[in-house]
Amino acid sequence: MNRIFDTHSHYDDRAFDDDRDEVITRLFENDVCGFVNQGTTVATSEFGIELAEKYGSTYRHIYAAVGLHPECLNENSIQDIETIRRLAAHPKAVAIGEIGLDYYYDVPKELQKEVFAAQLRLADELSMPVVIHDREAHGDILEMLKTYRPKGIVHCFSGSVEMSREIVKLGMYIGMGGVVTFKNARKTVEVIAELPLDRLVLETDCPYLSPVPFRGKRNDSTMICYTAARIAEIKNTDVDEILRITKENAEKVYNLDLSEGIE
Length: 263
Ligand code: NI
Fold this sequence. Notes:
42% helix, TIM Barrel, alpha/beta, binds nickel (II) ion
């Protein structure tokens, strides 16, 4: 049984255009049991669903999150939510994501908040989990999570230990990826040390954020083994245990049964 489930990936990215089929086949030969492709626009949300459909008969556990990423918003975004609603009805759509706030990029905050709130309401209405993107927006993210109370994952968590406690209190999960293995990841290591294992899920955010020793290279879901090894070290346990628990957590948060289909 393959052990790795990648809760956050972008296989639609053009970094995979030349060899997407080979990469995906190789994942399943190398301990990956499945992944969730994250939407950032209507087009990439559709791409994720097409990916799941295309490979579905061979690899059962390819899923899509559908949503509008704060970095990709424009004046049509509010209308685009109606398309996201339609895509979310697809059987392979498992979450509304990735959505949130990104104050690093120059997208007006008011537009970001409006579209984020609308997608939180959509997730609530559809009883679906959300996948949250939070870059340099910790305070506003926490405030909105407290207001809308979604279920789901705060991905590539970069907040403080205090914030992670708040996220756990809200019943959400924290997604960790390659950053954990970076030399300057002191704050992330503190968060993991403190975090109950039943609140942790693993991710790549591929093609970005490869773990050491592949930092800077193209990432893919097989590399989660390096992230898991570092987390095992921090938690004073073994990789098997980390992969087992985080896969169970992924099943819970995305309402999946990963026990079948991959031997
Ligand atoms: Ni992402």
